[in-house]
Amino acid sequence: MIHTVLFCEGSRHEIGRKQGEWLSSEIKQNLASFWNVLRAKGLDKSEVIENAFKHERLWAPERLEEIEGVGEGADIEYPELLAYNLYHDLAFPEECTVLMALGNASATGNTIFLKNSDKVGSESYVGPSCYKNKEINVILALNPEGGNKIIGVAAAGATAIKMGLNDKGVAAGSNISRTHELEKRGAERDAIQIKALDRGALMREGLERGKNALAAAQAILPNLLENPMSTPGNIQFADAQQAMIIEGSYHELATEIVKDEVAARSNRFVLLEALNREDDLSSICRYIRARQLLSENKGNVTLEKMIEFSMDHANGPGPNSICRHGTHFSEETSLSAAVMEINAGKPEKSKIALALGKPCHAWRAGEAHINLDMTMGPEDIPEGLKNGEIWKKFYTEEPKRARDKRC
């Protein structure tokens, strides 16, 4: 769930400490869920922490400083938070659907970028800060010393982000890929022992360091050439001129450059398609539908049109539609969405529109979504978005059918 909106600035340690102080209970709740999930996978906590220390130096010093700050602010031991940040993607894989239109493919010439954030739930997600067995997420507005400003969505206590935008006009998203390798490697004990990189942490590093999509990709590629992503998946960076889509598996890496075109990713590869599982019906359906919507509207894609795509119920409503619904909390369903529009002339005024709750409900209700840019401050955020009540009101698995001709 999206629980709060938090503004942080200063050194990485100061940013982490503020998150820890403000979100102590939420972070502790997420940590408890994390260890419960890994325990259910047969992993011993001490073994996970031991392997986390072995791979600690995969991360830049400033990221480790932030984790230390979170621990100080929340009164949590550093080793636990290090393991949580290194292996978060193993416990809570980021599902999701990403669509984009660049240059002449959009109606305005501005890049339009969509990510529907889909997650599974767990019976371990219980307590005063949880809702309907879903993980606690926050909206972070970050202004780190020596780095770009970022607005993004993150799990409480994690330095990684799920999707975001920086003040240079670079948008970012990611998703896991359901591959044969992932299925075979399903031995989580093996997964924690390999040197691997969290996609969300890579995304944040790219946004903090990149003045454009190419620079963001170049910031993370050296690490990816040496170490794989923690699970197979996609990372997307897009600016006003082009997008870089990085597909990475345990032994393969590929990059697509998109200009004046549309592109999409679900939980599957396009360039490395031979690695995909053929029985992953949801990813196939969502990718085909996303390409259909983008192709039919190429040259006419606007922020408003992309919001329509975010609510699309073709092949559903259910797990195979872009706006994903389920009947049980353990299913992968849509919990929030972001649509970003890059302002080429004034990148700091680029927009990120966030819908909190099921997209088909939240985008239609004025109180359930908000448009942000880098010039906004805490005083611009409505109270319901600060305390999580809006997300609770608009997260439901019951599809919104009014005015939706595709249902």
Could you estimate the helical fraction of the residues in percent? 25-40%
Average pLDDT reading:
86
Top-tier CATH class: Alpha Beta
Mass-distribution shape: globular
> Cα-atom Rg, whole angstroms?
19 Å
Give the helix tally. Answer: 14
Order of helices and strands: EHHHHHEEEEEEHHHHEEEEHHEEHEHH
Q: What is the structural class?
A: alpha+beta
| Count of domain modules | 1
Question: Which CATH-level-2 architecture?
Answer: 4-Layer Sandwich
User: Spans with pLDDT under 50 lasting ≥5 residues?
Assistant: 403-407
DSSP, total strands: 14
* Portion in beta strands: 15-25%
Q: End-to-end distance, in Å?
A: 25 Å
CATH H-level homologous superfamily name: Penicillin V Acylase, Chain A
In the CATH scheme, what's the topology name?
Penicillin V Acylase, Chain A
Main beta sheet: 8 strands, mixed
Widest sheet: strand ordering = 1-4-5-6-7-8-9-10
Written overview of the protein:
With 407 residues, this protein is α+β, with helices and mostly antiparallel strands. The chain has one domain (93-394): Penicillin V Acylase, Chain A (4-Layer Sandwich), CATH 3.60.60. Helices cover 34% and strands 23% of the residues. It has helices spanning 12-22, 24-40, 45-54, 61-74, 78-91, 180-184, 188-193, 199-209, 213-226, 281-296, 303-310, 359-362, 383-386, 389-394; strands at residues 2-10, 97-103, 109-119, 137-144, 150-155, 163-166, 171-176, 233-238, 243-248, 253-258, 262-265, 333-341, 351-356, 369-372. It has an eight-stranded mixed β-sheet. Strands 11-2-3-12-13-14 form a six-stranded antiparallel β-sheet. The protein is globular, with a radius of gyration of 19 Å. Residues 403-407 have low confidence and may be disordered.
